[in-house]
Give the backbone structure.
Amino acid sequence: MSRILPAVGARNLRFPWVLLALAIAAAIAIVLGSQWYRERESRQTSTAERRLLEARGRVEAARRERDSLQESADVFRTLVERGLLLGEHRLDLVEMVNTLRARHQLFSLDYEIAPQRALQLPGGRVYPSLDVLASRVKVKLRALHEGDVLAFVQELTQSRQGFYPLDRCLLRRVDSAGEALQPHVEAECSFEWITLKDKNANRAG
């Protein structure tokens, strides 16, 4: 039986076979390298996107905190402008109430200012540098119609000379026997006169 390839031909084909094997190995290496590179790029892209999202989240949180602080500062500035840090000056309140009575043409106005007390805030919240104080102000008035009462209440609660949030207000009709210039409505309202005190000033005193 004769050999298909002579020995010399086999030796001559050895080098091409080696080249073929190297080419196949190189192709496999290129494929594996490309796959590794794509996975690496994908991981880096995912990491970059996650970091970008985290950075955006931190920026958004900082923006919300800034806006919240700005709103708190605006509220505090408004309250200070309305005299919350000036303390109670009861004669000023009496003068203002009498002025409002004349302005809104009330028939009668009686008021009572309770002693000042510490105001209990929701959740037992306290402030480290400020005491929140309140005095209950009760008024009983008679007017020609409801509009005069509502105007009085609105102007008092929006006064720039103090902070007087309305707690309650009860209105009822008054029998005026058909007389036009007699009070037709009576109201009993309660306000909280709220002021702030600096705790450091209290300790210094």
In short: The longest strand covers residues 130-143. Helices lie at 7-81, 90-103, 146-157, 199-204.
